[in-house]
């Protein structure tokens, strides 16, 4: 019994040694290394090279996007004006450039890394002899289900990438997004936060933004419409409007936010009571609101100084029989036509 057991153990050890010897010989053979290991090494090398190339392309793309940043024009400080009240705000442009490049670049690099490494791992598993067909089929079914359930989310992210890449808006800009308008407080890849004049913070999904009106890029204009009496001299009133506006542009609160001379456009509208004259003033971005308020205030003071009054609308007085009687006091009732 003991002899049989010893013989069996000796046989097992001999088979194990033979198997180990055969495995070592297989590992030492060139045919083994030209098979699956070589293909796995080639997959890894090609994946690393492709990953490096994609990151290089992304870096070039983000640099190109950053160079397209809209420069901001602001009022220069009194000590550095040298006859020019305006300057390009390079600090703000650089900050926006860095923000845009960082955001877009991080998203593109993450997506590229996930795709490349996922494909590499799947190919390596296939080279090791595992059947990955059921896994790929299951992943396809899950992907289709997610694509139907997350359409709006994908739409929001893609729209956010293009909004940031094209510099449509940025933090501190005054924008009109249709349903919401105000100052941008945060820009994300899924939502944009806008605070309106009343202090309400709007969270707008990027996929729902169909148009962007940005009042803070490049420059802006203040539009001044001045109604004058119908029988007034248009040329005289136009000269007064330009003169009063030119004087108002030198006042504090206006002077540092405008450039050039006021532009008189002419008659905008005509009614039976008045003629409306239109004038434009070029301002710094997002300064057209404050400039417009102060400019209208100064024009009102100039009109009062010259005794100019806005035209009244036509009024009619309706009297009843009792009110038309001489023995009773007549109280007219005004109504606007």
From TrEMBL:
Its main location: membrane. The chain crosses the membrane at residues 40-58, 106-126, 132-150. Keywords: Cell membrane, Membrane, Transmembrane, Transmembrane helix. This is Mechanosensitive ion channel. It comes from the Bacteria. Residues 310-337 are annotated as: Disordered. It is found in: Cell membrane. Belongs to the MscS (TC 1.A.23) family. Residues 224-310 form the Mechanosensitive ion channel MscS C-terminal domain. Residues 112-151 form the Mechanosensitive ion channel transmembrane helices 2/3 domain. Residues 153-215 form the Mechanosensitive ion channel MscS domain. Residues 312-337 have a biased composition (Polar residues). It is a multi-pass membrane protein. It holds the Pfam family MS_channel_3rd. InterPro entries: LSM_dom_sf, MS_channel_1st, MS_channel_C, MscS_beta-dom_sf, MscS_channel_2nd, MscS_channel_C_sf, MscS_channel_TM-2, YbiO_bact. It comes from Rothia endophytica. PANTHER family: MODERATE CONDUCTANCE MECHANOSENSITIVE CHANNEL YBIO.
């Amino acid at each position: 019994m003991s002899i049989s057991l010893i013989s069996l153990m000796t046989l097992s050890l001999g088979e194990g040694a033979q198997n180990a010897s055969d495995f070592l010989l297989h590992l030492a053979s060139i045919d083994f290394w030209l098979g699956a290991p070589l293909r796995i090494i080639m997959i890894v090398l090609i994946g690393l090279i492709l990953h490096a190339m994609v990151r290089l392309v992304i870096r070039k793309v983000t640099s190109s996007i950053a160079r397209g940043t809209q420069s901001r024009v602001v009022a220069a400080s009194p000590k550095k004006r040298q006859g020019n009240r305006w300057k390009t705000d390079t600090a703000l442009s650089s900050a926006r450039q860095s923000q845009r490049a960082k955001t877009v670049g991080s998203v593109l690099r993450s997506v590229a890394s996930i795709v490349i490494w996922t494909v590499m791992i799947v190919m390596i598993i296939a080279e090791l002899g595992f059947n990955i067909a059921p896994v790929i089929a299951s992943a396809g079914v899950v992907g289709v289900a997610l694509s139907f359930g997350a359409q709006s989310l994908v739409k929001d992210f893609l729209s956010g990438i293009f909004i940031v890449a094209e510099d449509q808006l940025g933090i501190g800009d005054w924008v009109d997004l249709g349903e919401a308008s105000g100052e941008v407080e945060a820009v994300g890849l899924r939502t944009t936060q806008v605070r309106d004049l009343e202090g309400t913070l709007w969270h707008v999904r990027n996929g729902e933004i169909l148009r962007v009106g940005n009042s803070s890029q490049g420059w802006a204009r203040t539009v001044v419409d001045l109604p004058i009496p119908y029988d007034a001299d248009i040329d005289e009133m136009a000269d007064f409007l330009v003169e009063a506006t030119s004087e108002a542009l030198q006042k504090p609160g206006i002077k540092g936010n405008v450039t050039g001379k006021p532009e008189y456009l002419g008659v905008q509208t005509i009614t039976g009571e008045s003629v409306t004259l239109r004038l434009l003033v070029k301002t710094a971005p997002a300064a057209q609101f404050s400039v417009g308020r102060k400019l209208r205030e100064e024009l009102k003071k100039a009109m009062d100084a010259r005794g100019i009054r806005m035209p009244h609308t036509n009024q009619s007085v309706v009297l009843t029989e009792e009110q038309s009687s001489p023995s009773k006091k007549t109280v007219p009732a005004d109504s606007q036509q």
